[in-house]
Design goal:
globular, about 180 residues, Porin, mainly beta, single chain
Length: about 180
């Protein structure tokens, strides 16, 4: 009589995790330049109402060590149906720089970053000081190309305080040693 094998979801998940972790190392290097682009959904959190939006960013990261780097980015965000606004569409340009810590050991690279910068609304003369925390992961397809997901929370302080902007981004990057 043939015995029946029962599948166990925990064993399946552990097998997938082991395969990912056992994959070839990312071989992180200091003095690595990373250029990339992001497409994201942005949710402006407000006590009364919220504004949804989309945006795009370009960024550059330079590795000081194999784990720590400096990063700079410029982003354009458009929010729709802005509450209490004469114009239902609001645009925001943000420029920021920061420090990133990446656990660049395997093909899946988790990271955390802290950013500071400025944001302006090009349609209205309004500017804010920006502070942002972000985290996510990149998957290294090759030594030169990666893509991943990022979640960030940004606080804007100026004449008016924007309680926060939550973004979820899809990223792609190109890597090169310099």
């Amino acid at each position: 009589m043939a015995s029946r094998m029962r599948s166990n979801p925990a064993v399946a998940w552990l097998s997938v995790a082991a395969a990912l972790l056992a994959s070839s190392p990312a071989r992180a290097f200091d003095e690595e330049l990373q250029l990339g682009g992001d497409a994201f959904y942005a949710y402006e959190i407000d006590a009364d109402d919220a504004a949804h939006g989309v945006g795009a960013a370009v960024r550059m990261r330079y590795g000081l060590t194999d784990a720590i780097g400096v990063v700079a980015a410029v982003a354009w965000t458009s929010h729709f149906n802005v509450p209490e606004s004469e114009d239902p569409l609001r645009h925001r340009v943000t420029g920021a720089a920061g420090v990133v810590y990446a656990l660049d050991v395997f093909r899946i690279v988790p990271y955390l970053a802290i950013w500071v910068g400025a944001a302006v609304d090009p349609m209205v003369p309004t500017a804010w000081f920006a502070v942002r925390g972000s985290g996510g992961f990149d998957f290294l397809w090759t030594r030169a190309v990666s893509s991943g997901l990022e979640v960030s929370y940004e606080l804007l302080v100026g004449e008016e305080v924007v309680p926060g902007i939550l973004t979820i981004a899809i990223r792609t990057s190109w890597h090169r040693l310099v």
